[in-house]
Design a protein that fits this description.
Layout lengths: L1 H21 L7 H13 L4 H4 L2 H4 L2 H15 L3 H23 L6 H18 L11 H13 L1
């Protein structure tokens, strides 16, 4: 089963990277930067051995959502960029904590993967999230994490 999941992930990564390469109009846009960042975070060298299995099993769903997003971004760039504006503050806060070296714990991991679930809910609503997620829930989770 794990072998099949990894094969699916690799195929979806290739498809998404290829599709992103076709969409040159995204190159100078916030959407393009966000998509490129997501691809880098989900498909970096050695990701199979570094991403915990509990999260690795969700990568096919995240990549299918990205595939759907790429198809829509060709025609709905303004809408995509409005959605990027909703998630970007959370990523910025997360990366500030990473840069400070203050992020190596299970709550941080959960928040990081909650951001991927939020992407699914923003960009590909027809693909179900693993659990309920919203901008409000993310803000509360971040506030709770900051307070801990």
């Amino acid at each position: 089963r794990l072998g099949r999941t990894i094969a699916d992930i690799l195929k979806l990564l290739q498809t998404c990277r290829s599709r992103r390469g076709e969409l040159k109009h995204l190159d100078q846009s916030p959407s393009g930067a966000d998509i490129d960042r997501q691809l880098a975070l989900l498909g970096y060298q050695g990701f199979v051995g570094r991403i915990p299995l509990a999260y690795l099993q969700h990568l096919p769903r995240y990549l299918k959502a990205l595939q759907y997003r790429l198809d829509k971004a060709e025609y709905e760039l303004a809408r995509d960029e409005a959605r990027v504006a909703k998630i970007q503050p959370f990523w910025d806060a997360y990366w500030q904590r990473v840069a400070a070296g203050d992020i190596a714990d299970p709550d941080a991991d959960l928040f990081r993967w909650s951001l991927e679930e939020f992407r699914v809910s923003l960009f590909a609503q027809q693909i179900r999230t693993a659990y309920p997620i919203s901008e409000k829930r993310l803000a509360k989770a971040w506030a709770d994490y900051q307070a801990a």
